[in-house]
UniProtKB/TrEMBL annotation:
EC numbers on record: 2.7.1.35
Enzyme class at the top of the EC tree: transferase
Residue intervals of the Pyridoxamine kinase/Phosphomethylpyrimidine kinase domain: 114-285
Protein name in UniProt: Pyridoxal kinase
Organism placement in taxonomy: Eukaryota, Metazoa, Ecdysozoa, Nematoda, Enoplea
Taxonomic source organism: Trichinella papuae
Pathway given in the UniProt record: Cofactor metabolism; pyridoxal 5'-phosphate salvage; pyridoxamine 5'-phosphate from pyridoxamine: step 1/1; Cofactor metabolism; pyridoxal 5'-phosphate salvage; pyridoxine 5'-phosphate from pyridoxine: step 1/1; Cofactor metabolism; pyridoxal 5'-phosphate salvage; pyridoxal 5'-phosphate from pyridoxal: step 1/1
NCBIfam families named among the record's database cross-references: pyridox_kin
Highest taxon in the source lineage: Eukaryota
InterPro entries in the cross-refs: PM/HMP-P_kinase-1, PyrdxlKinase, Ribokinase-like
Catalysed reaction equations from the record: pyridoxal + ATP = pyridoxal 5'-phosphate + ADP + H(+); pyridoxamine + ATP = pyridoxamine 5'-phosphate + ADP + H(+); pyridoxine + ATP = pyridoxine 5'-phosphate + ADP + H(+)
GO terms for biological process, alphabetical: pyridoxal 5'-phosphate salvage
Family of the protein in this entry: Belongs to the pyridoxine kinase family.
Keywords from the UniProt entry: ATP-binding, Kinase, Nucleotide-binding, Transferase
Length: 331
């Protein structure tokens, strides 16, 4: 084997042993969400972070698009219930269903959602210890971006099946049936959803006490004795619109809940710290560019795509320090 130039230098580099201290894999994840050819959202956001944290990842795409839908144009195909059912049949026939976790995100078509829920039911019957992470992607800022007819399936079937859910404020309102206008409303809405089944609920963003510099989120865990413990966190708010942040956060939450033995506070802190570092790196790289001139909206959209690969160190060892504080319900 002849190795030349930079390849030889790479072979002689001293590897960071902290990355490889434990070569044991952490589990096997079935990730069901969107796919884009160019850019990062859905499975493109989730797979790399999970893999570098030593999770095996199998992916099923709910849509296959050329690029994310914030661009003026996109092309591709939306998958249907028969598509996912066919794939699952092949996995089952070959006994390839040894999953420790299921992670689901954006689904665009109702029959796909129905079959996806059936698949999670089936996997939970096969493995009672399987953990289901459900990002109930339906909309934001009082606007649906999936058919409204999908709400009952999420509310009445997916949420009761889930162990962890990661809604934003609007999705929390849709799932709980409660309008969110205060911190108390957030806690009460999370408790309503705890009663449906999920043990862990992370509300990724809210507009309560709006501040242009910071974004506030909340999370709650149901303890073994039935009590709930709620916390909140604040992170830097960026004026730019990034596509795929929810997908990235859900995968990081899965990583850190598993690695911290489900220490929810520590897991959310680490996941959000990585998120901050990835967004900051993306902005820095967007501003310095890659040698080409910025030309209109198309180039701007391209520049602001999350820099997932370049952020490997941020995903493994975040430098930001997000802290969570307990929230007490006041009478």
């Amino acid at each position: 084997l002849l190795i030349k130039g930079n390849h030889a230098n790479c072979m002689n580099m001293k590897l960071d042993s902290s990355i490889f201290m434990d070569v044991k894999e952490n589990g096997r994840v079935l990730s069901i969400q969107s796919h884009v050819v160019s850019g990062y959202c859905g499975n493109k956001c989730a797979t790399f972070p999970l893999q570098i944290h030593r999770f095996e990842v199998d992916t099923i795409n709910s849509v296959q698009f050329s690029n994310n839908t914030s661009y003026a144009t996109w092309t591709g195909k939306t998958m249907t219930g028969s598509n996912i059912k066919e794939l699952y049949f092949g996995l089952e026939a070959n006994e390839l269903l040894g999953y420790s976790h299921v992670l689901t995100g954006y689904v665009a078509e109702e029959s796909f959602l129905t079959e996806m829920i059936n698949i999670v039911h089936s996997l939970k019957r096969k493995n009672k210890d399987l953990i289901y992470f459900c990002d109930p992607v339906m909309g934001d800022q009082k606007r649906f971006y999936v058919p409204e007819s999908m709400l009952p399936s999420y509310r009445d079937a997916a949420v009761p099946l889930a162990d962890v859910i990661t809604p934003n404020q609007y999705e929390l309102e849709l799932l709980s049936g409660k309008i969110i206008e205060s911190e108390r409303d957030v806690i009460e809405a999370m408790n309503l959803l705890h009663d449906k089944g999920p043990r862990w609920i992370v509300v990724t963003s809210t507009d309560i006490d709006y501040c242009p510099e910071t974004l506030t989120g909340y999370f709650s865990e149901m303890k073994g004795d039935g009590r709930t413990a709620a916390h909140k966190f604040q992170v830097q708010r960026f004026p730019q619109y990034f596509c795929g942040t929810g997908d990235l956060f859900a995968s990081l939450l899965l990583v850190w809940l598993h690695k911290t033995n489900y220490n929810t506070v520590l897991a959310v802190e680490r996941a959000q710290s990585s998120m901050q570092d990835v967004l900051k790196r993306t902005l820095r790289m967007s501003e310095c560019g890659d040698g080409s001139a910025v030309e209109g909206e198309k180039q701007s959209k391209k520049r602001i795509e999350l820099k997932i690969i370049q952020s490997m160190d941020d995903i493994l060892r975040p430098q930001s320090r997000v802290t969570c504080t307990p929230v007490e319900m006041k009478n």
